[in-house]
Give the backbone structure.
Amino acid sequence: MLTVIINYFHAVKDISSINNSQLAKICLGIHAFQEKINQTQHKSPKKHLRIAIEQLENNTIENKLAVINDLEQIATNHPQYHWVIMNIFTTFIRKNTLYIPQEEVTINLLEKFRLDIQVALTVIAKRDINKDPENEQLDLSYIDMRGANLNKANLQQTNLYQANLAGANLTEANLAGAILSAANLEGANLYLANLEGAILSAANLKGANLKGANLHCASLYLADLYGAILNDAILDGANFREAKLSD
């Protein structure tokens, strides 16, 4: 279990600024709380899930990380709860991030992204999409994810309407068919990202790195691309009507 959590820390270390002593302290806390969680393992998956959900709120960061890991394991071992747990994570993220309208927001990344939120996002981004039910969509709309690490994340068809992803790392992320209307992607790294068929109408892409990105048939109507890097991007079929482009 600790190996899993340490891997999460490595994935987010660029934004969490955690040193080795802090990492050791947090891991000890996670290990202690995980021992308590293990006492529920003998219960039915439904009861185990209910207990884990109750423990997710009003707890320390260490405990929340242990619970997030526990929920991920339930989703892996009991596919019937996979989608329920993914929605639990999106609700958890929404409740614990303060949404700020795009016109009022700045790219300010001085306030570090909360580690438990990053870990929950990491689980969502790396989930087994083959277990997602047909015609269902993850809802990450109106969420403040400034500076989040979503490298190689699978967010295909995800609802990210008006999400704040300023400065986020979306390198090689799969955003095909995603709804990113009015989303804030200022300064985001979308290098080699797959945005095929994505809806980016009125999105803020100022200074975003779209080098090598796949924008085939994407809608960029009214999008702000001032200063965006579009070298080697696939642009065939993309709608740039009334988009703001650099000279």
